[in-house]
Design brief:
There is one protein chain. This protein has helices spanning about 5-15, 30-45, 60-80, 90-95, 100-120, 130-145, 150, 175-185, 200-215, 220-250, 260-265, 270-285, 290-300, 410-420, 425; strands spanning about 20-25, 50-55, 85, 125, 155-160, 165, 250-255, 255-260, 310-315, 320-325, 325-330, 340, 350, 355-365, 380, 390-395, 400, 410, 430-435, 440, 445, 460-465. By secondary structure, it is of the alpha+beta class. The chain has three domains: about 5-230, HUPs (Rossmann fold), CATH 3.40.50.620; about 250-330, Uridine Diphospho-n-acetylenolpyruvylglucosamine Reductase, domain 3 (2-Layer Sandwich); about 340-470, Phenylalanyl-tRNA Synthetase, Chain B, domain 3, CATH 3.50.40.10. The strands form five sheets. It has a six-stranded mixed beta sheet, with helices on both faces. It has a five-stranded antiparallel beta sheet with strand order 7-8-11-10-9. Helix 4 packs across helix 5 and helix 10 packs across helix 12 (about 270-285). The chain is elongated and about 110 Å long.
Length: about 475
């Protein structure tokens, strides 16, 4: 099969490019990219594509880079294709950021191509990566340590910053592209840095792959076949992960997602790992920075044999919480600040800052009726038996409560544990405390035996703490 038909068939099969689309082709001037732009130009006659060339002089090789840019510009003019050239001081960028040369060059090149696509009103950038590049990528990832996703290699089409990066040559080998250039008398430039062994990719291409091919001449083809199989399995597992996400995960607040540990543990271990990774992607915080070890630490922390309450600092901006059956991943978590408010009986209420809770109170001459809808959020005390002043505050070390039916008192910490109140909520919980630091009431949890209403009570303190201002007395 002729190369042009092979490439066209892949484009149709993978739905990479539709008729009439505007495309920006990344052209370096080497044999891969010259074959790419020539193929696109031939296919454009049938598919009615509008083409634009983008080329970057990274300033790694000074004179050689200038000649490459001039070559690409001249070829584009002869072919009648608009072309934009960028000169970017990537070595200076590397000095500023500490990034490695190939990552820095790729980042700056894609940024420029995205800019060109915006000007050209194109949604797709076409790249010249081929089958040998794919084999090098997979082997690099294997050496560095990768999971199944890494073995899938580069995709035919990939979303990036609102654009699609398209790779129609991914099933084509380097020697086929060189042969195509010779067949069509296409001139091209040779990048001298491709022979420098200071770059990892070059050492893999020049040394590792030829050595491994001595064991199996089809090594490169086998790696590409592996990538194809893994991409299909990735698609399937990703769809299963998305379905698990829909079924299990709740978005509690901005920057927080949670799910049931019990439900999570019904998933296969492969889906457990992928679900955690997917949550990180949706939280948009640090998915690329969290490695396998961190994901595994979270997965194991959810297990039945792990503590029922646990906090892990996963990343500088990500916290993991296990609170009984509830698992939460939180971006930018901040512990509750201390708060303390005196009950001023010249007023009748206030809002507790940063908690979303409202306090309303009044002194009554008759016993108020506690409606079911206020259960746990309202309490009544014998006002004349209270030790004033009263305060609303969050917990402190050593807090105790005199509980109905017990001789003596009980630690508030133990009351929280008995009630299975999640640790994060404990510091946000408002407590009603008297002048001797005795805890009188923990809304929704427990009321003390102190200042209980009796038949002889003549003045009643009625207090409500709610998250709805409309639910006040």
């Amino acid at each position: 099969m002729q190369l042009i038909h092979k490439v066209e068939q892949l484009i149709q099969q993978e739905k990479l490019i539709a008729p009439g689309e505007r495309l920006v082709a990344a052209v370096s001037g080497g044999p891969d990219s010259m074959a790419l732009i020539h193929l696109l130009l031939q296919l454009a006659k049938t598919w009615n594509w509008k083409l634009m060339i983008g080329h970057v002089n990274h300033q790694f090789r000074k004179e050689e880079s200038v000649l490459e840019a001039e070559f690409v510009q001249g070829w584009a003019e002869q072919a009648g294709i608009p072309c934009q050239i960028a000169v970017i001081d990537v070595p200076a960028y590397i000095r500023e950021t500490g990034d490695n040369a190939q990552n820095a060059a790729r980042e700056k090149r894609l940024q420029f191509l995205a800019h060109v696509a915006g000007q050209f009103k194109a949604r797709k950038i076409v790249l010249g990566h081929h089958a040998d590049d794919q084999a090098e990528t997979i082997l690099m990832r294997l050496i560095r340590g990768t999971g199944p996703s890494g073995l899938a290699g580069m995709a035919y089409s990939q979303s990036w910053n609102g654009l699609q990066l398209v790779r129609p040559l991914l099933d084509v080998h380097k020697e086929e592209l060189i042969g195509y250039c010779k067949e069509h008398k296409l001139e091209y430039q040779l990048d001298s840095s491709n022979a420098e062994r200071k770059y990892t990719r070059n050492r893999i291409r020049l040394d590792a792959i030829p050595y491994l091919q001595s064991y199996n001449p089809h090594f490169v083809e086998n790696l590409n076949r592996l990538a194809g199989m893994m991409r299909a399995e990735e698609d399937y597992l990703n769809s299963e992960s998305e379905e698990a996400f829909k079924q299990l995960v709740q978005s509690d607040t901005e920057g927080e997602m949670s799910f049931s540990a019990k439900a999570f543990l019904t998933l296969h271990v492969a889906l457990q790992r992928r679900l955690i990774k997917l949550i990180l992607n949706y939280l948009d915080c640090c998915a690329d920075s969290v490695d396998f070890a961190a994901i595994e630490s979270m997965r194991l922390a959810i297990g039945r044999n792990a503590p029922s309450n646990l906090t892990l600092d996963i990343h500088r901006n990500l916290s993991f919480f296990k609170e009984y059956d509830r698992i939460s991943l939180v971006v930018g978590y901040k512990p509750a600040a201390l708060f303390e408010y005196s009950l001023d009986f010249t007023m009748n209420g206030f809002e507790i800052a940063n908690t979303g809770k409202y306090v309303k109170y009044m002194i009554l001459d008759t016993l108020p009726e506690l409606h079911n809808e206020l259960a746990g959020r309202a309490a009544v005390f014998d006002y004349d038996r209270l030790r004033l002043p009263l305060v609303i505050r969050n917990r402190r070390n050593g807090d105790r409560m005199q509980v109905f039916g017990l001789n003596g008192s009980k630690k508030v910490k133990d009351i929280f544990i008995d009630a299975k109140l999640p640790p994060r909520k404990r510091d946000h919980m408002p407590l009603l405390v008297d002048s001797e630091n005795s805890v009188l009431w923990i809304p929704g949890v427990k009321r003390s035996a102190h200042a209980s209403v009796t038949d002889s009570t003549t003045r009643f303190l009625y207090i409500v703490i709610s998250e709805e201002q409309s639910e006040m007395v």
